[in-house]
């Protein structure tokens, strides 16, 4: 059957892709560390007198870099993997009844993440726009972030690179400390600065802050509240991003033809720009900080097992 053949084709292809996807995380972290390292630090006087301005400049510079990543590094998620056999193609995704389904793996110890939560009031329309643009081109070779779990990673009390085991008592103490931080935060009015597609195939929304507590300050407060947390965090201190989708493979060949482009990068730029035309400038309010224990690897991204504690931001004026 043609459909089965196509799925099988895609699937044999996508087995390598599962590997890439995993390695893409590493690349992704590398990207952000690099950005952090490269970002020029403004004179300290400026930093003190006008830190919110410098944070927003810092975000712009970072987003510019992320936007160039696909051209500078190519679509790594299309190439990688064919060479490397080292990791068993591990099963991060499987096809179940024709649907891409994540294969969940327990995280030991569980990752403890602090994230800002985006309400479905905002995430659902975004998610619909993302699907409208990308779904026809990728069929099943794409994983969409669950719109009930759109989030902005802020700070990890423990992550998979530097695990910090904690007892139940210690976890309760961390959660209480995070709740206290949340009470001092002002809800953020944010605006979607742009959508970018990284070389690792992650479609990201990059946001700017109109008012409220700046992400850089939120991270600084969390660091003080969680002194045992890994020194090295995963992201730039100023970044405010949320992932919308992850591309797992090539776009459908038939559609590439009707677009008269044999270069997938060109098509990616076209799709990203279509999406930007739809949702760039979208405004949202963020008023919850979550303390999440992820029992599965990437639970927030893959609908895994987790325990969420939700804290409302307490400051009423921005
Ligand atoms: C999306 O997340 C919500 C909240 O955790 C959950 O109830 C729902 O089952 C998830 N959807 C899918 C398709 O897994
Ligand atoms: C692709 O090329 C064909 C003929 O060369 C043309 O009819 C069609 O409109 C083109 N499609 C796009 C999307 O540019």
From TrEMBL:
Transmembrane feature ranges: 16-36
Alphabetical keyword list: Membrane, Transmembrane, Transmembrane helix
The protein, known as: Uncharacterized protein
């Amino acid at each position: 059957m043609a459909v089965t053949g196509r799925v099988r084709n895609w699937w044999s292809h996508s087995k390598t892709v599962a590997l890439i996807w995993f390695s893409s995380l590493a690349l992704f972290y590398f990207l952000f560390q690099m950005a952090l390292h490269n970002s020029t630090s403004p004179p300290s006087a400026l930093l003190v007198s006008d830190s919110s301005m410098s944070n927003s400049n810092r975000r712009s510079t970072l987003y510019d870099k992320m936007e160039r990543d696909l051209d500078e590094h190519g679509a790594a998620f299309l190439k990688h993997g064919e060479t490397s056999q080292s990791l068993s193609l591990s099963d991060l995704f499987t096809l179940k009844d024709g649907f891409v389904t994540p294969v969940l793996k327990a995280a030991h110890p569980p990752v403890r993440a602090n994230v800002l939560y985006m309400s479905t009031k905002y995430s659902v329309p975004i998610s619909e726009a993302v699907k409208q643009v990308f779904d026809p081109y990728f069929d099943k070779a794409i994983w969409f972030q669950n719109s009930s779990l759109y989030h902005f990673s802020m700070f990890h009390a423990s992550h998979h690179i530097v695990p910090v085991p904690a007892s139940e008592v210690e976890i309760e103490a961390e959660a209480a400390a995070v709740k206290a931080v949340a009470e001092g935060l002002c809800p953020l009015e944010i605006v979607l600065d742009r959508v970018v597609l990284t070389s690792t195939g992650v479609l990201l929304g990059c946001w700017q802050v109109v008012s409220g507590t700046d992400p850089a300050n939120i991270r600084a407060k969390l660091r003080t509240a969680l002194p045992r947390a890994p020194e090295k965090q995963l992201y730039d201190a100023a970044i405010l991003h949320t992932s919308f989708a992850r591309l797992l493979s090539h776009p459908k060949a038939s559609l590439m033809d009707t677009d008269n482009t044999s270069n997938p990068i060109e098509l990616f730029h076209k799709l990203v720009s279509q999406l930007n035309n739809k949702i760039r400038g979208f405004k949202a309010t963020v008023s919850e900080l979550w303390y999440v224990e992820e029992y599965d690897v990437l639970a927030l991204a893959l609908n895994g097992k987790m325990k969420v504690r939700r804290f409302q931001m307490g400051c009423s004026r921005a």
